Amino acid sequence: MKIRVPATSANLGPGFDSCGVALDRYLFVEVIEESYEWLVEHELGPEVPNDQENLLLKTALELVPELPPHHLKMTSDIPITRGLGSSSSVIVAGIELANRLGNLGLTQESKVTLATKLEGHPDNVAPAIFGDLVIASAVDGQVDVVRHYFPDCKIIAVIPRQPLSTEKARHVLPSEVPFKEAVAASSIANVMVAALMTGNLPVAGQMMEKDRFHEKYRSQLVPHLAVIRELAHEEGAYGCFLSGAGPTVLVLTPENRCQKIQQLLNALELDAAVEVLAVDREGVQVF
Ligand code: HSE
Fold first, then answer.
1. Of 124, 153, 146, whose CA–CA distance to 22 is shortest?
2. Which end of the chain is more exposed for a tag (fewer CB within 10 A), N or C?
3. What architecture does CATH give domain 154-277?
4. End-to-end Cα distance, the chain
5. Could you tell me the distance, in angstroms and rounded to a whole number, from the CA of residue 73 to the centre of ligand 1?
6. Does residue 228 have a pLDDT over 90?
7. Nearest residue by C-alpha to atom 1 in ligand 1
8. Residues 6 or more apart from 275 whose CB is under 8 A from it?
């Protein structure tokens, strides 16, 4: 059995802790054989444990402590701590592992509820489970999710080589937002979602850049965002935004602008990889 979970980009600008999209970078977890003790074989670096301290196993065993030990193999091309949902993908894989080995028969909705409880917010785990664009709300323990087709466009990811911890990027956020500001910020998010759902990328892109919940507080941690945004505007992109807590920035472009914008982003020499990604439409899969 092999479990595949996509990368994700959360927030999409103003949809803080609520909106996300699945992308075509993947975590794979292969179940090799039953074993005397748990072993997670991987080449993801010394900071990723290969015993029960691994987040994958922690997640699976929290759901079903008596799961029989197995030898697993984990591979991933989702960059770690770059704002592309690498830890969410592991949580989702852990839930699917417990689901399959423990015959839990979980629905997609119950997977999202469990994953949101573990992750703290639904905007990465929900698209990792459902695929595509997901708008989610997790309030008072109740998780509600709407999935929709993300409109066709090119997605350029500028992925800095330096990581940025989500904890650090959440620490700079205010603990409260004044009522008037909250109304303005949520109205922008509402229009962004409506524009995405009607395939209106020019308006969606504009709204993505008007976020008032998080980007301005994080700007000192991600100085490249302003530079990329300026270039994206000059070259006719729909819009760009911080992917999750950063440091990755996503630029949405019309098909015919993508190549030129990618070249120009590369020419900025930002110490970052510049890659074209596609929307994953399937979410978590088991082969
Ligand atoms: N919504 C989250 C944030 C995503 O921006 O902090 C990263 O976990």
1. 124
2. C
3. 2-Layer Sandwich (3.30)
4. 6
5. 28
6. yes
7. 17
8. 156, 157, 159
Atom of ligand 1 nearest to the CA of 245: 5
Give the helix, strand, coil percentages of the chain, each rounded to 5.
35, 25, 35
Q: What is the DSSP letter of 151?
A: P
Distance (angstroms) between ligand 1 centre and the Cα of 279 equals: 19
Q: Name the band, by pLDDT with cuts 50, 70 and 90, for residue 45.
A: confident
List residues bridging with 256 in a β-sheet: none
- Residue 131 sits at φ, ψ, to 5 deg, of 80, 170
84 is in an annotated binding site: yes
Structure tokens at 216: 């301005």
Domain positions in the chain: 2-149+282-286, 154-277
Question: Residue 233: how many CB atoms within 10 A of its CB?
Answer: 13
d(CA 89, CA 184): 32
Average pLDDT of the segment spanning 64-87: 96
Architecture of the structural domain at 2-149+282-286: 2-Layer Sandwich (3.30)
Residue 86 CB-half CA count within 13 A: 18
Residue 35 labeled ligand binder: no
> Would 2-149+282-286 and 154-277 be classified into the same CATH topology?
no
Contact in structure between 250 and 241 (CB atoms under 8 Å): yes
Rounded Cα distance between 170 and 173, Å, is 5
pLDDT digits (tens, 9 = 90+) for 163-190: 998 899 999 999 999 999 999 999 999 9
Collapsed DSSP state (helix, strand, coil) of residue 158: strand
Half-sphere exposure of residue 278, counting CA atoms within 13 Å on the CB side?
Answer: 5
SS3 call for 240: strand
Residue labelled with tokens 């509402």: 190
Compute CA distances 199 → 151, 193, 218, 249, 276, whole Å.
5, 10, 29, 21, 20
The answer to whether the beta carbons of residues 42 and 73 sit under 8 Å apart is: yes
